[in-house]
């Protein structure tokens, strides 16, 4: 009889636990200094439960301070320190993760995610979870080199193409491009931005290139050397008695550079990747 009552009680507790929203928040998260971080906070939406309030609080001193509030009137950032650099997810139901940009060392603290729901019977249920945000100055990783097209590292002459150098770590990250020389001479510097642009690419641009990346923390990192080949367009056409209707160029890459790596540390997804834009493009010297 006692065993039967125990099983009934366990079943009752299981139903109650399963029937209420449960917040999923990691115990801690690490973000890069001067970079961006997302502090996950999610729950599985339940039928009949309506989200009515979302709060994010930061623990300063003895009392937590509300820094973000979402209610029926919209989103409200409560502290001037976070204006323009705080955002809370809203597109996916059940995802209220906190996104912070341009992390400073004093952003290190404990953060609370708090969600309020209206239940099917008209009452309200509140759940909260605390997580610790750690901010680290991260050294620059080994940069990778890619091209801005699907041609790989072998392209036809006359094509506009770029070599892109990408590294991860705490910004700002500075880049330098080098071209290898013959007869054991020192490589020459050909660019000082993340993207090296050829417009257009000439046969004389063929050669071996590599880039370096340097941040405020750690030593300078070097990429693998890539062999960049520009083919003479006139030699790409096969002799034929019929006029060709289309032009086809080789698409096979000759480089063995690895694609961006998979992160397996606890900083996965929070290391900032510098993406080249108009301000990060330099043209290869002629």
UniProtKB/TrEMBL annotation:
<dbReference type="GO" id="GO:0045957">
    <property type="term" value="P:negative regulation of complement activation, alternative pathway"/>
</dbReference>
<dbReference type="GO" id="GO:0032991">
    <property type="term" value="C:protein-containing complex"/>
</dbReference>
<dbReference type="InterPro" id="IPR003598">
    <property type="entry name" value="Ig_sub2"/>
</dbReference>
<dbReference type="GO" id="GO:0043031">
    <property type="term" value="P:negative regulation of macrophage activation"/>
</dbReference>
<dbReference type="GO" id="GO:0032703">
    <property type="term" value="P:negative regulation of interleukin-2 production"/>
</dbReference>
<dbReference type="InterPro" id="IPR007110">
    <property type="entry name" value="Ig-like_dom"/>
</dbReference>
<dbReference type="InterPro" id="IPR013106">
    <property type="entry name" value="Ig_V-set"/>
</dbReference>
<dbReference type="Pfam" id="PF07686">
    <property type="entry name" value="V-set"/>
</dbReference>
<feature type="domain" description="Ig-like">
    <location>
        <begin position="21"/>
        <end position="131"/>
    </location>
</feature>
<dbReference type="InterPro" id="IPR039944">
    <property type="entry name" value="VSIG4_IgV"/>
</dbReference>
<feature type="signal peptide">
    <location>
        <begin position="1"/>
        <end position="19"/>
    </location>
</feature>
<dbReference type="InterPro" id="IPR003599">
    <property type="entry name" value="Ig_sub"/>
</dbReference>
<dbReference type="InterPro" id="IPR039939">
    <property type="entry name" value="VSIG4"/>
</dbReference>
<dbReference type="InterPro" id="IPR036179">
    <property type="entry name" value="Ig-like_dom_sf"/>
</dbReference>
<keyword id="KW-0732">Signal</keyword>
<dbReference type="Pfam" id="PF13927">
    <property type="entry name" value="Ig_3"/>
</dbReference>
<dbReference type="InterPro" id="IPR013783">
    <property type="entry name" value="Ig-like_fold"/>
</dbReference>
<dbReference type="GO" id="GO:0042130">
    <property type="term" value="P:negative regulation of T cell proliferation"/>
</dbReference>
<dbReference type="GO" id="GO:0001851">
    <property type="term" value="F:complement component C3b binding"/>
</dbReference>
<feature type="domain" description="Ig-like">
    <location>
        <begin position="143"/>
        <end position="226"/>
    </location>
</feature>
<protein>
    <submittedName>
        <fullName>V-set and immunoglobulin domain containing 4</fullName>
    </submittedName>
</protein>
């Amino acid at each position: 009889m006692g065993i039967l009552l125990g099983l009934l009680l366990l079943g009752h507790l299981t139903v109650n636990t399963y029937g209420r929203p449960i917040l999923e928040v990691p115990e801690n998260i690490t973000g890069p200094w001067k970079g961006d971080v997302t502090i996950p906070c999610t729950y599985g939406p339940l039928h009949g439960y309506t989200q009515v309030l979302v709060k994010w609080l930061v623990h300063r001193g003895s009392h937590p301070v509300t820094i973000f509030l979402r209610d029926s009137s919209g989103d409200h950032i409560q502290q001037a320190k976070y204006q323009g650099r705080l955002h809370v997810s809203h597109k996916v139901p059940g995802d209220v993760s906190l996104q912070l940009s341009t992390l400073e060392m004093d952003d290190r603290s404990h953060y609370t995610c708090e969600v309020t729901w209206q239940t099917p019977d008209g009452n309200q249920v509140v759940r909260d979870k605390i997580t610790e945000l750690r901010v680290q100055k991260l050294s620059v990783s080994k940069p990778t080199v890619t091209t801005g097209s699907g041609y790989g590292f072998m392209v036809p002459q006359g094509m506009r193409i770029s070599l892109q150098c990408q590294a991860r770590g705490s910004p700002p990250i500075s880049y330098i491009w080098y071209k290898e020389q013959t007869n054991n001479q020192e490589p020459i510097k050909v660019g000082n931005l993340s993207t090296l642009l050829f417009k257009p690419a000439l046969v004389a641009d063929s050669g071996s290139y590599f880039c370096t990346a340097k941040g405020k923390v750690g030593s300078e990192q070097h990429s693998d050397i890539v062999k960049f080949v520009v083919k003479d367009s006139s030699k790409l056409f096969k002799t034929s008695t019929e006029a060709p209707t289309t032009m086809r160029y080789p698409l096979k890459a000759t480089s063995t550079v690895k694609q961006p790596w998979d992160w397996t540390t606890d900083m996965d997804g929070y290391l900032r990747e510098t993406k080249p834009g108009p301000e990060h493009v330099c043209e290869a010297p002629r």
